[in-house]
# Entry
Amino acid sequence: MKVAVIGTGNVGGGLADLWERAGHELTRIGRDGGDVSTADAVLLAIPGGAVSEALERVHGIEGKTVIDATNLIGVSAPDGWASNAEFVKSKTGGPTAKCFNVNFAAIYDRIAAASTRPSSVWCGDEEAREVVEKLNSDAGYEPIYAGGLENAALQESFLGILFAISQGGMGPFFYRIAPPEGF
Ligand SMILES: NC(=O)c1ccc[n+]([C@@H]2O[C@H](COP(=O)([O-])OP(=O)(O)OC[C@H]3O[C@@H](n4cnc5c(N)ncnc54)[C@H](OP(=O)(O)O)[C@@H]3O)[C@@H](O)[C@H]2O)c1
# Structure
């Protein structure tokens, strides 16, 4: 599959590496934007408050299958939208999914060594299912479907529980990940 990642940091860069190793063809797009017109799937992995600005610098995203991995940390979804993912769909018009936003990038390198495949929750459009499930599977995750894109706000807010579990020293990570500033 041809996959474009918008955002080349922990999430965008990390997943791009995993997918490249699985045989996918990656285009990595940074802050300056670029062209995704040949991509079969586009991952959005930038700060949650930068989505509108970033999409303006990306060409050829209309109608594409987009996976939104962003979180809202210290910011809200754009006015009139319950979630970033629904806002993204309003801009791109293609199959859209929320995924990878509740899996910590710091432990991507431990996925392959896990005794059972770690789960990765996604919600979104049925038309995105094949791409989302393939990219989860090829990153080493077991995809868990959580309904349509109308559930994206729930999935975005779930991050708060993950940080609470992590701060409590419990849960699957066994070490504490401090919540980012503004959370
Ligand atoms: N870190 C995690 O464990 C994790 C897990 C799940 C979801 N998330 C979410 O995924 C997103 C990315 O997180 P991350 O940890 O990968 O962040 P990161 O390492 O800071 O990378 C962010 C990327 O977005 C780019 N960027 C920043 N501002 C931008 C703008 N205005 N327009 C376009 N691109 C911009 C950055 O470009 P430069 O390199 O030029 O600054 C960088 O490539 C965030 O929404 C985060 O909440 C994070």
In short: Helices lie at 10-21, 51-56, 84-92, 129-139, 152-157, 159-167. Strands lie at 2-6, 25-29, 34-35, 41-44, 58-59, 65-68, 96-99, 119-124, 142-145. The longest strand covers residues 119-124.
